[in-house]
Amino acid sequence: MARFLVVGGAGYIGSHLVKVLRKRGDEVIVLDNLSTGHRAAVRDCQFVQGDLGNPDLLDQIFSRKKIDCVMHFAALSLVGASVEKPLTYYDNNTARTISLLKAMIDHGVRRFILSSTAAVYGEPNRIPIDETDSTIPTNPYGRSKLFVEKILEDCRRAYGLEYAALRYFNAAGADESGEIGEDHSPETHLIPLVLQVALGQRGCLQIFGTDWDTPDGTCLRDYVHVLDLADAHIAAAERLIDGNGSAVYNLGCETGYSVREIIELARKVTGHDIPVREAPRRAGDPARLVASSEKIKKELGWKPRFDDSEKIIETAWKWHRSHPLGYR
Question: Is residue 182 in some structural domain?
């Protein structure tokens, strides 16, 4: 049994990780300001409502109990909003993470796992993308996460802090029980948007661009199930706890699905017609984003349990059908 501080643990991915950790018997402390998370998403653990940028609160948390590992999910993640309000993103995603790292160093906590992103790569030079490819983000969101990765490497050299940076591709799906799932406001992710159309909550789905250099003209993305992400975090934590060094890993299923393919799979899973409307391309959207996850498979033995998008959509549909208004 280990003791984890999960920052942002009431959010989409964090709450799924918390549930898996508690099933394992680990002790979990969740810190979340509930700006985008949901109190109802986390149960059976110590919950602290507050901000990771509050040094007094962090001092209290680290003084009470010895933390074995910190897992950090508390980031703003909307690309468009990061372009409109870059200082907000650099403040929350970068500066406040520095406050968290300072508190860790002061209290002798030396294991850290970052929820990072494929956005650090920017426009990929090749597909699939691996961890050695260039990191040239095209938006403040990606830069805010890449800055943290570089700060972590500096902290490793200076303070002996060991870390894992996990670069997600497209997180999707929900817990198989249907008890917790994805609930964002506003919603920007493709699969929940498609399912909202199936539920009659939206009139149609917009397809942004149908002339991309892909087989059907729509963007290709690599979808990875939220429970597979949770498994990867645990594997990375075990690596650090066992005394192995820092690492950066991609997390994806290594298969690209187009927007039209996701819509067709959703029609099959839900049994509903899903009307679409074609719209112009959005600036900054790459045509293809597909991961190579060979490194984490080889080093940590991680393998996605949900290895195709139909299975992922099935779990998401179970959540959305039973919680049409999310956690409200």
Answer: no
Q: What are the backbone angles phi and psi of residue 208, rounded to the nearest 5°?
A: -90, 90
As a whole number, mean pLDDT of residues 103-123 equals 96
Active site residue 89: no
Considering the domain architecture, whether residues 214 and 69 belong to the same structural domain is answered as no
In a 13 Å sphere around the CA of 115, the CA atoms on its Cβ side amount to 24
> In which domain, by residue range, is 316 found?
190-221+254-322
- Would you say residue 76 has pLDDT above 80? yes
CATH code where residue 74 lies: 3.40.50.720
Mean pLDDT, residues 114-123 taken together: 94
Q: Which residues pair with 7 in a beta bridge?
A: 31, 72
- 246 in the same domain as 115: yes
CA angle 265, 168, 214 (to 5 degrees): 50
Q: 49 with 33: CB under 8 angstroms?
A: yes
Backbone angles phi, psi at 260, to 5 degrees: -65, -35
The tokens describing 284, both together, are 């900054």
Per-residue pLDDT, 1? 86
CATH number for the domain that contains residue 200: 3.90.25.10
Catalytic-role residue among 12, 89, 90, 141:
141
Calpha distance 12→74 (Å, rounded): 10
- Do 145 and 216 reside in the same domain of the chain? no
Q: Is 203 exposed, middle or buried (0-12, 13-18, 19+ CB in 10 A)?
A: exposed
Residue 328: what pLDDT? Answer: 86
